Amino acid sequence: MADEKDKYSFWTKYKRFAGNEILLYVIMIIGIILGLIIFSK
């Protein structure tokens, strides 16, 4: 029972921060791509 509660709280926390993490990764990927384009010219 305790493990299920921990998993539930973990997943609710993960879902809460998942959107921000995805946004952060998207910004990082765009930044890397823009950096490669700028330095390749």
Primary descriptors:
41 residues, 95% helix, 1 helix, rod-shaped, mainly alpha
Give a description of the structure.
The protein has 41 residues and is mostly helical. The chain has a domain at 14-41. 95% of the residues lie in helices and 0% in strands. It has one helix and no strands. It has one helix at 2-40. The longest helix has 39 residues, at 2-40. The protein is rod-shaped and about 55 Å long. The model has no long low-confidence stretch (mean pLDDT 78).
Task: Summarize, please.
The protein is mainly α and 41 residues long.
Tell the overall outline. rod-shaped
Strand content: under 5%
N-C termini distance: 58 Å
What's the pLDDT, averaged over the residues? 78
Uncertain spans: none
**What Rg do the Cα atoms give?**
17 Å
Q: What is the count of β-strands?
A: 0
Count of DSSP H/I helices? 1
Order of helices and strands: H
Determine the fraction of residues in helical runs and give it as a percent range. over 70%
Sheet with the most strands, sense and barrel status: none
Provide the structure class.
mainly alpha
